[in-house]
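pasting DUF2147 domain-containing protein for the record, 138 residues
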Amino acid sequence: MKTFASALFLMFLSLSTFAQQSPFGKWRTVDDETGEEKAIVEIYESEGRMYGKIVEILLDDKSALCEACPGDKKDQPILGMVIIEGMEKKGAEWVNGQILKPENGKLYDGKIWREGDKLMVRGYLGFLYKTQIWHFVN
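structre below
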């Protein structure tokens, strides 16, 4: 009985550790310059890759269009837009995808990882990069 209880405890511990480190769920973004909360992005997995979609706009016009976005996203509503695409899992990080910044329409190579209740979202433009910290919602 002790062996079964120990095994059950270890399984629960490993599952809870995995759940705590999962990047999937809803995250609150923060404006780099003002520190104001901007949007809620839902991070999800599809066919083994990570994606992120804006599900709520907290600042600005909730019906705003992405005027500067490239391709088929140009002039589309920002609310509901997929801004993180095709990230692949590599260890504890997600890499080799793209991150779109709707404010300026720029596409960045990306890397995402979780640190506790924070999601580290890094966009690269050549050798330059910037990391945003997003906060867990649920």
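The two ends are 36 Å apart (CA to CA).
Residues 22-136 form a domain with the Lipocalin fold (CATH 2.40.128.520).
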